[in-house]
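#lab-general

N.A. 3:47 PM
ok so I finally got the sequence cleaned up, no stray characters, all 136 residues accounted for. can someone with queue access submit it? mine expired

B.Y. 3:52 PM
send it over

N.A. 3:53 PM
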Amino acid sequence: MINLNNKSIILFDGVCNLCNSSVQFIITRDKNNHFIFASLQSDAAQDILLHFKKNNSDFDSIILIDNGKIHDKSSAILKVSRKLGGLWKYSYVFIIVPKFIRDFFYTLIAQNRYKWFGKKDSCMIPTKELKERFLM
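B.Y. 4:20 PM
back already:
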């Protein structure tokens, strides 16, 4: 069983190549193992979304659950970056850009992610070493 104390949960599109690469990027830079992951296609993610009374049947956004609050799109990405190692935490400065502007660019990429980056036939299967960081 995964201990969720002081952890944040990232929900992502499990068949999107860009999303899977982003998860790998986060795992590599998450030196404190702060993040737990779940594919939006998983039962665990759907249960979490139901808990927050949020329906996400189109899987077009990264979702961050942090301190009992739900964040999506560009806000989720910036809040994740703030907890990463190295210089990535400084990208949080872009939170000053109004959300509607940030989300415009996020949505543009999200709507074209399969065309630009490709798509898998099934969700990513975490390696044995990483399995403890994923909700199924």
